[in-house]
C-alpha cells in the first residue's frame, strides 16, 4: 500500500482504524453527539461516532435529526472546530512567585489524530499554520501541537444549509494536507468508505486495517457524489472582487443596518475555525504570594479589544462588525496571502441574530452597483 492508492474499508474497519490510531499512541479526536449538537472531542472508540445523525442548519438555526441510514459523516460543521485542539481557548502560560520571578509553562502536547476533517476545516488548519506557525515569530505551542498531527479527512457529499465552501474554493472535496481521506457511501451495496492514501504514515496505519483495492467504478461513483455536492451548497459568496468591495464600502450606510441587528456577542468569532486573536489576564490568590498569567481567546467584537491609551478605538457595534468582516474577507490577504474565510457557515448558524455573512456581502455589492449606476 502506497501514497496515492485508493482502498475500500467497511464500517467495522472504520472502528478498527480508530483503535489502530489509539494503539499507535495517538489521542483520537472526532465527531460525536453531545448537548444537542455534533461536536469534536476525544474518542475512546468508533461507537461514539454520530452514526445515523444529521443536522439542519440555517441563519441562527442548528438542529439534530435522525437519518434513515447509519451514515457517520453525513452532517455539516458543528459549533466546535479543530482549532480548539491546536490553539486552545484558555491556557496557563506562566506563574509568578513571591519573588516576582515569572516561570513559563511549557505544554507537553499529546500526539493527536483528527478524524472527520472536511475540506473547509482542512483549509482552516492550513491557514492557522501560516498565521500561528509561520512568520518571524511562530507560536511554539501551536507548532508543537500541530507537529506529528495525523489527519483523516472526509470528502463531503451532503453539504448543509449554510455551507458555501465552493465559492471560497475549499471544498466539498479535499485535495491536500491529509494522511487518509474518506468518502462515505451508503447504498444497496452496503456501508463502506473509499480511502485515499495521502502519506506514508497513512499507508502504514491503513495497513493494519482490513481493506481492499477500490474498483474503478467505485472510485468514479465516489468522485461523482462529491462533485454533485458542489451543486447543492446552501449558500454562496457573491462572485465579485470582495477585497475591493470592502475597501470601497468603508463609509457605506449598510454598516448601520448590520449594527442595528448585531448583538456584538462574539459568537461568530468563537465558532470561526480561523479567528486566532487572544488576550492575557493575570490572576492572584488571596495572599498575593502567587500569580498566574493565562491566555484566552479574544474577539474584535469585545469593546476592550481595541482599548488604547485610555479608550476603545472601536466603540460602536457598526465599527466592530466592519472590522471583523473586512479583516476576514479583505485585509487577511495582505497579512497572510489568502482569505480568512473557508465557507464553513458556522458564523451564520450560530449567530443569535441570524446575520448571514454571504447576504451582507451581497447587499454591499448591490449597494455598490446602484451607486455606480447613479454616477453613470
Q: What percent strand?
A: 15-25%
Count helical runs: 13
Strand segment tally: 16
What strand order characterises the main sheet? 3-2-8-9-10-11-1-12
Give the count of structural domains: 2
Structural class designation: alpha+beta
Percent in helix: 25-40%
Can you give me a brief rundown of this structure?
The protein is an alpha+beta fold and 376 residues long.
Topology:
Elements: E1 6-10, H1 11-23, E2 27-34, E3 37-42, E4 53-58, E5 61-66, H2 83-86, E6 90-96, E7 102-104, E8 112-117, H3 119-133, H4 140-146, E9 150-154, H5 165-168, E10 180-187, E11 190-197, H6 200-206, E12 212-213, H7 216-230, H8 242-248, H9 254-261, H10 267-271, E13 278-284, E14 291-297, E15 307-308, E16 311-312, H11 317-336, H12 346-349, H13 357-374
Parallel strand pairs: 2-8, 8-9, 9-10
Antiparallel strand pairs: 1-11, 1-12, 2-3, 4-5, 6-7, 6-14, 10-11, 13-14, 15-16
Helix pairs in contact: 8-11, 8-13, 9-11
